[in-house]
Amino acid sequence: MENNTGIGLNRISLFSKFLLLASLNWFLFRWAEADVHYYDFVLREKNFTRLCSTKSMLVVNESFPGPVIRVHKGDTVLVNVHNQGYYGVTIHWHGVKQPRNPWSDGPEYITQCPIEPGSNFTYEVNFSNEEGTLWWHAHSDWTRSGVHGAIVIYPREGTTTPYPMPDDEEIIILGSWYTEDVNKLVAEDLRTGADTPRSNCYVINGQPGDLLPCSRESTYRWVVDYGKTYLIRIVNAAMNAELYFAIANHSLTVVGMDGNYVKPIIADYIMVSPGQTMNVLLTANQSLSHYYIETRQYDTARPDVTDYDQTNATAILMYSGNYTAPDSPFIPYLLPSYEDSLSANRFLDRLRSLASKEHPVDVPLNVTVKMYITVSMNQLLCPNASCDGIDGNRLVSSLNNISFENPSTDILLAYYRNLSGIYTTDFPNWPPSMFNFTQADLPMNTTIPIQGTKAKVLNYNEEVEITFQGTEVLNASENHPLHMHGYSFYVVGSGYGNFNNETDPKTYNLVDPLEVNTVGVPKNGWATIRFKASNPGVWFWHCHFDRHLSWGMNTVMIVKNGGTPETSIRPPPTNMPSCTLPYITWVEDFDDSLGDVN
Predict the structure, then answer these.
(1) Which tens digit of pLDDT belongs to each residue from 12-23?
(2) With 50 as the cut, is the pLDDT of residue 595 above it?
(3) What's the half-sphere exposure (Cβ side, CA atoms, 13 Å) at 308?
(4) Which of 128, 243, 352, 398 is positioned for an S-S bond with 512, CB 3.0–4.6 A?
(5) Rounded Cα distance, 463 and 98, in Å
(6) pTM for the full model?
(7) Class in CATH terms, 163-357
(8) CA gap 321, 147 in Å, rounded
(9) What distance in Å separates the CA atoms of residue 475 and residue 519, rounded to the nearest whole number?
């Protein structure tokens, strides 16, 4: 076991460790087979200066990005989160499946209520078959813009990666920077129904880079040795942007994505969606000099919508040794432009699961549940056009024409305790009406969703196929990175236009499809995924563009227990953050029949 704490922070007391272990004594057998790691995360405000201005921002352990969690496959991590900020926060362990333990998954009002200022909560993060790179981030408001960090998952002791061991590794986190308090800006936009704020720049490991004002001295620099091979762990933590990424004059070999291995592909650039991670190998084989590491937005909105963040964030790869530094680093000329969809498609089409004997795929072949889910931008009508969205209305978004509303308490607690009045179980398998979803200038009646807190219920071990269909509602189609909590899934097919349920399934890849936790649904196109519902619990589905999440492009998936203790949700921790429970009756015994939930 090891104890990891932040810089200058007090170590967690031995007494509190023993109390925590005592409360989890029934789980000690699993721990005996893997390591347990301890981290303290202290959330507090700190001043940061970027783009010539200073602001106070909530961060973990006084760092931006936050601390790195390092584990081996199958380990457990206990993270004691102390909230010394001014508002409630939750933390999500993105891509960690948390078998039978949704209590520590983290999304606000889905699996817990916020950790209030002045209080703390210890997350138990259970790793299973993940291997590679994942990440953690706040999952309340837009706080994750400053509260996030990488998770490094090494192979089990005694095993190795399917590629030669690199000489060293580097973590690169791509993020968004706002010069003002982004939560205040978003709160006001949600109140008025307006569009949400654009970032002022992108950052690499917290820094904008020397192409942007007041940023030259703080540019992130990475020193490499000629002839060595490095594993770069890349995280897209940006709030609302898919990103292109390249390193001047250096090829990248992609070997992993979202905590899974892929067939190695060599590329001059990558395209990574928010929420996704990639592992790439780089060999330092160029002339001793300085080379820009650069990222910029890949934008798929209408060509006439140009108010997106067009900054280019940079870091510098610097070779060690004796040489005269250039006046300016080499530029990655092969980095695609902002709206270059062909380059994105060329890259994405090459990605496949490794599908080896040691790392096999297990694509569900006996589908028992099929769903067809439209992914849309929408509006709610405001009296006398009194809102600040399109035509004086309120901007919202939806899945199957349902715009998700956060409940008054978390859905997991309501499900586990059979609390009524919190959510309903009627999220539909199909859109309410069928039409040409990708047609321009769709009529007004297609733009207005219903609002509700609706969940989809699945029986344990059902094999599920979901086709997500992008739409041109409000003439606002773009790519949508959809993220699933508690699971990874196989992307068996994708394409442009309306999904054809007779011809498109014939194109499915059931041999080596990509296994991920976040899938990009193409602009005016579709993507089909498959998974087995083998992890009981309450799990969030949402777009990882935070503006779409805030507007309701979300739903909840409830996977029922499997009938044995080993296939059932674990009991809740005794110290879950408290929720306000209005007019609700507690049911003493857990019953997942769902008879009293509606």
Answers:
(1) 344 334 334 433
(2) no
(3) 24
(4) 352
(5) 19
(6) 0.92
(7) mainly beta
(8) 36
(9) 22
| pLDDT interval class at 587 (50, 70, 90) | very low
Question: What is the residue extent of each domain of the chain?
Answer: 33-159, 163-357, 369-567
| Whole-angstrom distance, CA of residue 69 vs CA of residue 91 | 13
Q: Can you tell me whether residue 278 is helix, strand or coil?
A: strand
Rounded CA-CA distance 137/36 in Å is 21
Amino acid code (one letter) for 229? T
The H or E element that residue 36 is part of is strand 36-50
Say how many C-beta atoms besides its own lie within 10 A of residue 558's C-beta. 23
pLDDT at 408: 84
Phi, psi of 188 (to 5 degrees): -70, -40
DSSP state of 68: P
Q: Which of 166, 200, 438 is CA-nearest to residue 297?
A: 200
What is the enclosing helix (H) or strand (E) of 127? none
In the sheet with 489-496, reading across from the earlier edge strand, the strands are: 450-452, 402-404, 394-399, 369-380, 463-470, 525-532, 489-496, 514-516
- Residue 524 near residue 470 (C-beta atoms within 8 A): yes
**Rounded-to-integer distance, Cα 210 and Cα 291, Å:** 12
Q: Are 165 and 367 in contact (CB under 8 A)?
A: no
Distance CA 572, CA 416 (A): 9
* CATH superfamily membership of 33-159: Cupredoxins -  blue copper proteins (2.60.40.420)
Q: What is the C-alpha to C-alpha distance for residues 39 and 122, in angstroms, rounded to an integer?
A: 9
For 248-303, the pLDDT digits (tens) are: 999 999 999 999 999 999 999 999 999 999 999 999 999 999 999 999 999 999 99
Nearest CA to 117 among 16, 15, 45? 45
Residue 524 binned pLDDT confidence (cut-offs 50, 70, 90): very high
**Degrees, nearest 5: CA angle 394-449-138:** 70
CA 89 to chain centre: 16
Contact present, 536 and 568 (Cβ < 8 Å): yes
Task: State the CB neighbour count (10 A cutoff) for residue 390.
Answer: 19
Cα 249 to Cα 268: distance, rounded to the nearest angstrom: 8
Superfamily of domain 369-567: Cupredoxins -  blue copper proteins (2.60.40.420)
With tokens 């909840």, the residue in question is 556
What mean pLDDT, rounded, does the chain reach? 92
Confirm whether 33-159 and 163-357 share one CATH topology.
Answer: yes
- Please enumerate in sequence order all residues whose Cβ is within 8 A of that of 163, keeping only pairs 6 or more positions apart, or say none: 255, 264, 281
Residue with tokens 């997350």: 123
Task: Write the burial class of residue 383 (CB in 10 Å: 0-12 exposed, 13-18 middle, 19+ buried).
Answer: exposed
Report d(CA 305, CA 235) in Å as an integer: 26
3-state secondary structure 541-573: EEECCHHHHHHCCEEEEEECCCCCHHHCCCCCC
Residue 189: both structure tokens together:
């936009």
Separation of alpha carbons 204 and 91, rounded Å: 22
**Beta-carbon-side half-sphere exposure of residue 93 (alpha carbons within 13 Å):** 31
